């Protein structure tokens, strides 16, 4: 699939999807830790999943350590299969980092590499039990 990112005065284009600038769309995403604890968060369509939790969040220790630069794997998330099929393809850079992420699953992605889509409203995304910063290996 051809991936591209274009900016114009009125629209951002992510692949085949169009989001009107200035018309922020908010959805709800549920993060589920390995122990079953769930955290419901508002999310802005067009942002990334990592931005929702951020960096140095006490509820998610260690998450987002590289602050979205696709180099640590601490934002490893496991997406529902139907959503995994809709998000942008994994780049070689993301693949290299995911290869070292603990508990890798078939629908694993890095939160900093996945754009938030309207179809994610109500999605339950799982966090692995082990969060590892691969830069410390
Ligand atoms: S925040 Fe480090 S890889 Fe995503």
From TrEMBL:
Q: Which cofactor does it need?
A: [2Fe-2S] cluster
What keywords sit in the KW lines?
2Fe-2S, Iron, Iron-sulfur, Metal-binding
Please report the organism this UniProt entry assigns to the protein: Nephila pilipes
The record's annotation in InterPro entries points to: 2Fe-2S_ferredoxin-like_sf, Adrenodoxin-like, Adrenodoxin_Fe-S_BS, Beta-grasp_dom_sf
- Give GO terms for biological process: P450-containing electron transport chain
List the GO cellular component terms. mitochondrion
Which intervals of the chain form a coiled coil? none
Please identify the protein, giving its name as recorded.
Answer: Adrenodoxin, mitochondrial
**Molecular function in Gene Ontology:** 2 iron, 2 sulfur cluster binding; electron transfer activity; metal ion binding
Record's PROSITE patterns?
A: ADX (PS00814)
Asked if the Swiss-Prot or TrEMBL record annotates the protein with the keyword Zinc, the reply is: no
């Amino acid at each position: 699939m051809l991936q591209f990112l274009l900016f114009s005065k009125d629209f951002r284009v992510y692949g085949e999807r169009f989001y009107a600038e200035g018309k922020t769309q908010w959805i709800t995403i549920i993060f589920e830790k390995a122990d079953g604890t769930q955290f419901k968060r508002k999310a802005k369509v067009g942002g990334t999943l990592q931005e929702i939790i951020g960096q140095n969040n006490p509820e998610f220790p260690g998450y987002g350590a590289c602050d979205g630069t696709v180099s640590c794997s601490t934002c490893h998330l496991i997406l529902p299969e139907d959503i995994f099929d809709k998000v942008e393809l994994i780049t070689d850079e993301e693949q290299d980092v995911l290869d070292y992420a603990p508990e890798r699953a078939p629908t694993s992605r890095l939160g900093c590499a996945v754009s938030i889509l309207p179809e994610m409203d109500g999605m339950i995304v799982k966090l692995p039990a082990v969060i590892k910063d691969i830069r410390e290996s």
